[in-house]
Amino acid sequence: MTADSTHSKPKGSSCGRTRREFLRQTGAGFTSVTLTGMLASDGFFASRATAAGQLGGAARGSKITLRDGRVIEGRLAKLKSLAEKPMAAPADGAPDPRLIVLIDDNLRRVFVPLRRILEADESATGQAYETFRVRQSVADKGGRVAMVGPIVRIKEFSEFGRRILEMNTNQGRISVIQGITLITPKYIKVEALNVSKGKNFIWDMRIAFTSLPRETLSKILALQIDPKNIEHRLKLVRLYLQAERYKDAELELDQVLNDFPERKEQFARTLLELNQAFARRALAEIRLRSQAGQHRLARRMLEQFPDQFPPDKVAGETLVAASELQNDYRARFEQGDEVLKKIDEHLALIRDSALRDRLKPIRDEIHNELYLDSLPRMAAYRQFWDDSTLEPEDKLALAVSGWLVGSNDATRRLPVALSLYEVRGLVRQYLAEPVKLQRNRILAEFASQEGANPTQVAKILAHMKPPLETPALEALPGFFELAVDGLAGEPAVTYYVQLPPEYDPHRRYPTVLTLHGAGTTPQQQIDWWAGSSEDGGPRLGQATRQGYIVVAPLWSKEHQTEYRYSAAEHAAVLNVLRDACRRFSVDTDKVFLSGHSMGGDAAWDVGVAHPDLWAGVIPIVAQADRYVQHYRDNAENLPFYLVAGELDGRKSATNAPLLDHYLTRAYNATVVEYQGRGHEHFSDEILNLFDWMGRYERNFHPREFQCRSMRSWDNFFWWIELDDLPPRTIVEPESWPPGRGTRAAETRATVTATNGVNIRTGAGRVTVWLSPGVIDFQQRTSVTVNGASLRLQGGFIEPDLTVLLEDARTRADRKHPFWAKVELPTGRVNVLE
Question: Hey, which bits of 449-556 come out as E strands?
Fold first, then answer.
């Protein structure tokens, strides 16, 4: 194996103000800074931790730490509703629970449940920000922009910080001249400018500092400073430093020193600190790439590290850390090479030529496919390969079985190991076989194999490659255009996949399944998450960088402009997910469902209709309607991250009651609202989204859950399947809205402390799907539905290989197959709130 602005609390009472008025009044821009005396003679960057705090400017404000580890800074306020007045006094002395926390960082307003906060420091003054105010003729009269329509075109900012934005409105297309009026390391304030001809608008919007490249910013900022004033020039350096854009800060400082050579010695320490900060960032990037499975890239970066960051420019501990990483890589690659060498040595010692012939295909597979992420499977083999008490056959058995089922379950019995290899072949055939008669034939062959039991087959499923081989398009590395059957009577669904660099089918990858909006394409969704591919070159976006698979189905009809909540749309999404899992190494515990606009509406609905499938749901500029409102409690065990624009029509008001439900009940929901923005794609938020996704994975075996159903196909939740739902609870999309008094069918399920399951449901029939994550098959089990207990022979439920294989084939979740099922009528009852 070889490596080819000061934040303050609102003063006085805000009784009678709306939330938006309150936010507008407390959302003033950061204060400007005084440069005089900011730079000491021995350099201004004493350390990364203290630099920003010593430079003056506006403070970041209070800080909260969430239970998932995220830290958010800004001004804080406690709300009882996203729609109500935030500081209004309660009527008649009634309790005034404020269970929603708002954090305003002048770019975004982030809303989180109070009970999801681990720690809050409301007295923190934060670190100081460097800011630049840009003189512009800001419109102070005219129509206030209350809603931002679909954006048609945005020109690039000129060196004067101005641009033209065109958007469609109910009065036709309008053009707005905007100008940058404030630049901080976190956000940029953009306002509508005065025009001598035409209509003026009052509009304050915010964009992330990261949205503008250094070339554009430098041209704009060059007109705001005196280039011959070193204090002004150093202010630019501090701006990039506070934004943690260390390379940009270094480039700016290099230009300063070229223009002021007599000050070079004075800032030698500053340059050193910048190099150290940049080196730390480079080392963090290497670790990120390594964690994403991009080992060849990480190793190349480590090999180049000493040349980029020589000892005279970088702190010793950083170089030591880089050296340790490089040594660890070298050792792991050497271990892999040694494993392959030892396998060949032990194979050569096998006297039986027929046995050697049986082992050779396995040897070739390991030689071709063993890599760093599958190397731990060889741990038992490595531990015993020099044990003189073991025969070569015993040692090879450890290698073969470890490769197939993992080192913890490796066996020294070669016949068993070879049987596992044969069983894996049968499993692969079964999962790929579309004809039931042929699957039955394959099932019969399992009977003759020693390793053909549910325990071993489940381990094989967890360690095997996807069962379907899929050739990639030659023009775009790792990019696929595929098709899968849609709903019966509907056309096939086309979908696209982008794999991350150095994709290894033996590694599980987090995945984003993303849904396009009206007038956009699945390819644009791939670009948004993984970056665009210029002339067939590699994508450089965040999914690429962080090692995510991106899946984008063409889920809607041609010219469709709104989501229809239909079975065909659900089938398009779910069938694509299952087909992708059959072809690619998707980590089914880390699949995130996302969508923009109409696709965000779909993601929200599909997410709460099938909450057991997702690690989290990310609706962007979406609206909660129809079933989403009725399925509000289905989100209790499903993390949500919602992104919206403040001026996106009435969506904020429409969504507020449902979001209040999520937030006040401490569901795992984060709501982000961009100030002055409308119906956009919000690429500004993508780093925060990946930070959030990296903290979550699906809980496939919740001990307790409740769910609601109003469509016949919304009937599978974690480990129960419902059939024969009461007709009065079902409202198909074409029959919407529901009649008076119609309520969703509710189901509650619990895993008991005595190895049983207890279900209350209004469905006429229920199938309970069981696996070791739900019950212990070695212990007596009870199944109770609507108060009636199922009689089990001997009190035990036996795992069934046929059930396991068919479940793995249909659901395509090789990580969590069900081992047994119990089907029974329920003695239907109504279980409603």
Answer: 479-484, 493-498, 509-515, 549-553
Place of tokens 């040694």: 338
Of 114, 146, 136, 236, whose CA–CA distance to 180 is shortest?
Answer: 136
Instruction: Give the integer Cα–Cα distance in Å for 171 and 168.
Output: 8
C-alpha 176/C-alpha 163 separation (Å) is: 8
Examine the pLDDT at 535 and tell me if it is beyond 80.
no
Tell me the CA end-to-end span of the chain in Å, nearest whole number.
Answer: 60
Give pLDDT tens digits for 177-211.
Answer: 999 999 999 999 999 999 988 788 999 999 999 88
Alpha-helix residue ranges (DSSP H) falling in 447-521: 454-463
- What residues have CB less than 8 Å from 62, skipping those under 6 apart? 7, 73, 74, 75, 76, 103, 120, 121, 122, 123, 124, 126
Whose structure tokens read 């070889």? Answer: 2
3-class DSSP state for residue 24?
A: helix
Q: How far apart are CA 205 and CA 367, in angstroms?
A: 57
- Separation CA 761–CA 781 (nearest Å): 20
Residue 539 has pLDDT above 50, yes or no: yes
> Which pLDDT score, from 0 to 100, does residue 277 have?
85
Tokens of 123: 């007295």
Mean pLDDT of the chain: 87
Give the burial string for 431-467 (b: 16+ CB within 10 Å, else e): bebeeeeebeebbeebeebebbebbbbbbbbebbbbb
pTM summary value: 0.90
Residue 3 has pLDDT above 80, yes or no: no
Question: Residues with Cβ < 8 Å from 732, sequence gap 6 or more?
Answer: 711, 712
**H or E element: which one contains 153?**
strand 151-154
- According to DSSP, the β-strands at 172-183 and 128-129 are unpaired
Whether 174 contacts 190, CB under 8 Å? no
Radius of gyration of the chain (CA): 30
- Distance (Å, whole) CA 493 – CA 616: 23
pLDDT at 123 over 80: no
What share of the chain has pLDDT > 90, as a percent? 71
Confirm if 240 and 252 have CB atoms less than 8 A apart: yes
Across residues 718-738, what is the average pLDDT? 94
Report the C-alpha gap between 590 and 484 in whole angstroms: 22
As given in the structure block, the two tokens for residue 183 are 């630049």
Contacts of 330 (CB under 8 A, 6+ apart): none
In degrees rounded to 5, what are phi and psi of residue 550?
Answer: -120, 130
Asked if residue 33 has pLDDT above 70, the reply is no
Give the pLDDT band of residue 270 (cuts 50, 70, 90): confident
Predicted confidence (pLDDT) per residue in 272-285, tens digit: 888 888 899 999 99
Q: How far is CA 607 from the centre of its chain?
A: 14
Stretch 693-719: mean pLDDT:
95
Across 635-651, average pLDDT: 94
- Residues 513 and 456: beta-carbon distance below 8 Å: no
Closest CA to 689 of 538, 463, 510, 830: 510
Token representation of residue 164: 């033209």
Neighbours of 298 (CB within 10 A): 24
Residues 469/474/479/481 CA torsion (nearest 10 deg): -70
Q: Which of 112, 104, 95, 134 is nearest to 27 (CA)?
A: 104
Q: What are 592-604's pLDDT values in tens digits?
A: 999 999 999 999 9
Q: How far apart are CA 188 and CA 659, in angstroms?
A: 28
